[in-house]
Structures are given as structure tokens and as C-alpha cells.
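Researcher: I'd like a structural prediction for the single chain below. Treat it as a standalone chain; there are no partners to consider.
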Amino acid sequence: MAWGRLIVSRIRWAASRTPVLGASGSEEMLELNGIRLPLMPPRPDLSQVQFGDPISLFNGRDLTGWRLTNPKKKNGWRAKNGVLTNESPKVDFSAYGDYGNLRTIRDFEDFRLTIEYNVPSAGNSGIYLRGMYEAQVVDRDSKMQGINGPGAVFGRLTPSKNAGNPGGQWNRYELTLVDRHITVVLNGQQVIQNQPVAGCTGGGISADDTRPGPIFLQGDHTSVQYRNIILRPAIKSSRDSLPRVLLIGDSISIGYTKTVIELLKGKAEVRRVQGNAGHTGMGIERLPKWLDPKNGKWDVIHFNWGLWDLCYRNPESKTQGRRDKVNGQLTHTTEQYRENLQKIIVILKKTDAKLIWATTTPVPAGEAGRKTGDDAKYNRVANEVMKKHGIQINDLYTLMVPHMKTMTVAPGNVHFTDAGSRLLAKQVAKTIEQVLTQESR
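Model: Treating it as a single chain, here is the predicted structure.
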């Protein structure tokens, strides 16, 4: 049971919504997917980390470079005489309020942040690093102490001492985040030394520890003031300049992602899109967000769509995912699939990344929403498109055909056991490594 709890705590959940029409009118199908996050990196040697030129995040005059995390909330933030003030009538410590939180428009990864805060007696706010790790902001004599008190990474890391000043006085934080390890200096006293932070803080705007994020200031608690907000980004060293690989796909790719990351450790930085990539229509819609330049440049993109495209769904079906190959409607015909893949390739080629297409894995007999043989038909269409564009093909279909009776989680199920996912991961990692080797010549 302890092992099970540990694994669950390190899984990122994402929801994929698909509108469907049911007997009672408009309905929505919700598919949940969990992604096990990468293992904690080793403790960084901060003496070897260099930080870049200081970036002033607050100009002291207005809110340039900042916005509310939720534009529907009341905006209590204003700038005057070098001070960023949140005016809120709230005085209790309840989790949420009517007033909005403020975040930087820019995202950051690893950095050193210095910031001064002044919270009234019994006041409460917070500084979220990358939008997910909260450096607690309360006065020294607050009822919140220890892991929830001054100097803490709220609910995650306990400071060695209470180094805060009384309410109504200014405090100075120096917060260093490198490789998911945090160092906290409060009012000149180091209270947390290079400690790993195992997961996000409640109230954050992201739970993905692998992604950059903003600096975000709580405004939905009580009134608070901030000033002198300076960030120095960590300079990427040679160990950080590995080629970057993006994985795109459905739940099959979710199953092999963790092992691919482990197999390519030290050879490539491997990331995966959030959640299930669904069908090709969803891919066309979501690719601009996934490929946003602020997320960095990709050297290799390994991608697949197919199992969702060839699936029949019926809003009246009680089967998971509304699958029904007898009375359901096909998501995309082979010609629609071909057209969508063409559009996807146009988008992907703009990245200048080396592209690798993964064929769709087999559909077993007895699958509730997919017909045996359609997998081969859709793969033929995809292979024609990829060959036309000179895109390398990673044939996962042929790899798994001999193992469908022994490596699926259940008869009639398209998903694979851990052994099946490891087999897929080995071929995915091998193909990616071969491409990276070719590119480096």
C-alpha cells in the first residue's frame, strides 16, 4: 500500500473532453489520463550554477508584465511609488476569495528571485515559483507556523527557524529554484538549504513539475504589499544543453513515456504533451499551444494519431469512452484522417524538428469501439502521407502484432501491460537515439 500511495502522488492527471450528443441533449465525454512524472533530479551543486543578468519584474509604476490568473476575479492590485499593493477586504485564512491572483506574463524555469513583502498582522499571501511552489507569506506571529509558516514552501518544506518580521514590517526573500530543489533565505538567514520539493503546492496553476511557469502572487487571501522584484534566470550549462525531444500521442504513448525518459537520460531531454492527444482533429487544434515558442525549440518530435480516429462512438453506449462499433459513428474516415495528417505535418514542419511518425498499434479482436483490420487500413494511409513528406516511420504496429495475446492488459483492450509498454519504449528510444546520432554527424 505504501508503494501504491507513492506512485499516485507522482502522477499528473489531465482531462480530455469531447462533446457528444445524448438522448437528453448535449453531453460531454470526459477521459482522464495519468502521467507518471520523471524521477527527482539529483541535488544541484549551486556553487557551479551561474545566473544571468537581473530582470526587473515590476517597474514600480504600473502592472506592465503582469495579469490576473483569472480575469473574472476582482482586481485589487495597483502600483504606486515602487510598491505593488493588493487591497482586499478579506481578513480570514480561507483558501479562496473574490479577489484575483497576479502572475507574470513570462514563464521561467530555474532562477534566483529576490522579492520584498509586507503583510499586515494576521495577513496571508504567497509567492508561487513557476506557478506551483508557494513560498509562504505571513507575519512572524501568525497562527501558521512550521511547514505552513514564514520561510516555508507551503505544505512541502519546513524552515529551520522562524526568521520572519512582525506584521506590518518589510521582509526580504531570496528564493533559488534549480532542478526542482529550493533554497530559501529569509531576511538574510538561510532557512531551507537546497531541498527537493516533491510536488506542487495546493492552489498553484500547474501540477507539471517539468514545465516552466510564472511568478504568481496570491491576491485571493488578505491585503499585502510587494516591491523590488528581481529575477536572475539560471544559465544553461553543457549538462542542460541536451537535444530536446517531444512525444505526442494517445494513451499508448502515455504508457511508454516514463521508460523512454529513463532510457534517454543523459542523451536527450524528453518531454511529452499534457494529457491524451486524442484524434487528429484535436491535434490540429492543440498543436499551436503545444508548440508555442515559449516552450523552447524541439530537435525531434515523435508523434502518432490513429486509435481515436478509427474509433466508433455512440452517446448512448455505457462502455468506457462511449465506444460502440455496432451502432456508433466513426470519428474520422480514412480520407478525413489523410487530410488531417497533411494539416498536422504542415504545422510540425514549421518547427524545423526532425519528425518521426509512430504507426498505430494493433486493435485486438473484441475491442468494443474499434474494428480489427482498421488499424492496418489507417496505417497504410498514414505511411503513404509520411513517405510523401520524407518523414521517418517507427513501425510500432509490426513490433506489437506478435504480442497481442500476451502483452495487453485484458482481452479486447488496446492498452499494454508494463512489459508491453517497456517493449514499445525500447524501440521508441532506439529510433530517437538513431535520429539524434544522424543529426550530430
